[in-house]
Amino acid sequence: MSLYQSLAYFAAYSVTATSMGLILATMPMLTVLLAITLLRARPTAGTLAGALISFLGLAWLISTGDLAALFRQGMGKGGFMMLMASLSYALYCVLVKRWQIPLPTWVSLYVQILCGTLVLVPAFLLAPSATLTNDNLPLVLFAGLFASAMAPGLWMRGLISLGAEKTAALMNLVPLFTATLAITLLGETLHLYHALGGGLILFGIALGHMSQRRVAGSSVP
After folding, report:
1. What is the per-residue pLDDT for 7?
2. Backbone φ/ψ region at 74: left (φ over 0), alpha (ψ -120 to 50), beta
3. Which of 61, 69, 63 is closest to 21 using CA atoms?
4. Are 6 and 147 in contact (CB under 8 A)?
5. Where are the alpha helices (DSSP H) in 63-181?
6. What are phi and psi of 25, to 5 degrees?
7. pTM: predicted TM-score of the whole model, two decimal places
């Protein structure tokens, strides 16, 4: 709860919203790869191929279409933080599945937010500029109420109502919504490397998703 939000907000200083949405699109595939290690899930060839294609798309996106530059200069700090944010959220999804916290959805979310707040209090108190003003208070309220409380709560409710498979599939709409809002509200420009990199990421996720569905369907007597 603390890592994902903090890393994403810091990444926003140096990464466009469109790129952030596309990097976040790797979260379902990262969840699958972490499940292989932590939940001992058995990967299929399609899952591994999809992961490889997705990360190729991620490399193309982060390098802005110049893979040689990525090898020469490495990943930028903002892109790395956003990737770590996506990884932390993927780890959260896997651990929620593994631990099966015996609490109702909204109670579980409340406890998680409370723990996340306690973790962040020392950093908040030590920050050089932590003053709430009329300018930043609406942003803080939006981030606290909608991005940090309402969105995770609805996500957890979706997992219960729709199941993990359909909910994860809907996660693929995040890059589309993000790019649309970024272009409309922030005036960002959609470049060719966004389209190619994002397309590879989503194609890889779809390939892994279809592979898992075929295996699940064949195992039903």
Report:
1. 93
2. left
3. 61
4. no
5. 67-73, 77-99, 105-126, 137-142, 151-162, 164-170, 174-181
6. -65, -15
7. 0.76
CA 134 – CA 8 distance, rounded (Å): 23
C-beta separation of 109 from 151 below 8 A: no
Cα gap 155→170, rounded to integer Å: 10
Cα dist from 108 to 148, 149, 168, 205, whole Å: 14, 11, 20, 29
Residue 26 DSSP label = T
pLDDT means per 10 residues in the chain (221 residues)? 88 88 82 81 78 82 76 79 91 82 83 89 82 87 87 80 68 79 87 85 79 56 45
Under 8 Å between Cβ of 4 and 81? no
Instruction: Measure the CA angle with vertex 119, ends 117 and 120; round to 5°.
Output: 65
Token pair listed for 72:
């020469």
